[in-house]
Amino acid sequence: MQTVAPTRGGGVGRHAEIHGDERAERVPEHSERERASTGTERASEPVGAGARCEQAPARATSGGGLDSSQINAPSQVRGSNESRRERWRRRHTSARFLRALMAEDPRGAFAKPVRPARCSWTLGPVVPVMYDGSKPAGYGALERCASIWCCPHCSAVIRAGRAAEIEQAVTAHQKAGKAVVFFTGTARHHQGDKLDVTLGAVLGAWSRLRRNKGWRLMKQQFGITGYIRSIEVTGNFSADGHGWHPHCHALIFLERDLTDSELASLQATLFGYWSRAVVAEGGKEPTENGLDLQKVDKDGKVLAHYLGKLQDKKKWSAGAEMARFDAKKSRGGIVPFELLDDDSDLPEWRRAELWREYYLATKGRRAITWSRGLKDLYTVEEVEDEQILAEAESTVMAWRTTSKAFRELRKVDVELLALALESVERGDWETVNQLLPADVDFQQHGQQILWWEKKKKKLASPKAS
Question: Kind and range of the H or E element at 210?
């Protein structure tokens, strides 16, 4: 068997053979616009760092296969592992729901699923497991969709990175003695409204608002220096629900703090421009409840009014409120990722229908935007979503299996792939090998890794006196 050296991020070397992998079996070469980034499959939040393996990975001796009922995480990492399994399960369901959108590729006879449905496809004959102890374990040599809207895995990683960028700007702005206010704008919506229409009206209204002469006047009157805009979508599809609910959030950066009367004046002025902009963009005129303006406190936190929909109130900042749409729960409704859960009150056919509508409505739209010059002002580096995914990866190969074994385990139970990562972090190599047997060439490679790790520890240790 050929030895394939993993590149940065765990990708397979350029000249590696790809026979027997999912790209060769299903997908012709990608176009430039749809080329998916590759890298390590990882959790969005660090799990408790398990001890590195102090012995060569051992093959399992005997015993039957595992199923998802045997997944038991250590107590110190249970929360993160549960989130990881949820993301793997949701991504698997998303791919199944999006299968109906499969289209013929114009360059060949292959029917190609849409990009989020291909996320985690294998790219070569082997799949390395990357883990260096400082970041969560993940898989290399897998296709990545980098969808901030529709991928439960990629979205979590990218949004965590974007939230950190926003927090950096907010913190620097407030340290300079300046203020930030939190804007929320929406439009009236009903059960029969199509998401593409209502979302388009909200996005168009924000763009129209900024182009209006009144925006320039408000900048002068209230000292507006910039903004960060994000879009969030929730929904309520019960019998008496109001369907899709897209809304626009924006952090508006000010030169000075506003008095309560000034804040009320700014909100009233914004509402007039906002309501007219929504109607001009084809939406339904919002009521006074369709716009809200709140101060961001001195710690960079959003006010308690918004914290009712969050899973972790203590850690929730303005950056998280703006970017961590993936981690929220809607009050009185659902967020789109909950359409992928089997315990939903909605029947599966309805959840699949809504998920496809959500995918089509958000495809190609920008989730988060910054006003010109704001990133430069606060030294926030301009990075692509794919770079955020790549920088979140471990770079040490701790295990390697075949692509065939990876795909077979995914067919049995996708959560077992999450269990394998948990087992790597615990150093439980017997379970890892039982789930994803090591390819033959990796046995010698694993011994080389072990030797080098011991050598580095010996060199780093102080000499005995």
Answer: helix 195-211
Interatomic CA distance for residues 4 and 390, integer angstroms: 20
Give the pLDDT confidence of 415-444 residue by residue, as tens digits.
Answer: 999 999 999 999 999 999 999 999 877 765
Q: Please give the distance of CA 264 from its chain centroid, rounded to a whole number.
A: 35
The arithmetic mean of pLDDT across residues 323-335, rounded, is 61
Count CA within 13 A, CB hemisphere, residue 161: 22
pLDDT in tens, 252-267: 999 999 999 999 999 9
**At residue 279, what are phi and psi to the nearest 5 degrees?**
-65, -40
Q: What is the pLDDT of residues 66-84, one digit of tens each?
A: 333 333 333 333 347 888 9
Determine whether 139 is exposed, middle or buried from the number of CB atoms within 10 Å of its CB (0-12, 13-18, 19+).
buried
Q: What are phi and psi of 33, to 5 degrees?
A: -70, -30
Pick from 128, 163, 137, 121: nearest CA to 43: 137
For residues 403 and 125, the answer to whether their CB atoms sit within 8 Å is: yes
Q: Which residues of 147-165 are buried (b: 16+ CB within 10 A; e: fewer)?
A: bbbbbbbbbbbbbbbbbeb
Report pTM. 0.77
Distance in angstroms (rounded) separating the CA atoms of residues 247 and 251 = 14
Give the chain's largest Cα–Cα span.
80
Q: How many residues does the chain have?
A: 465
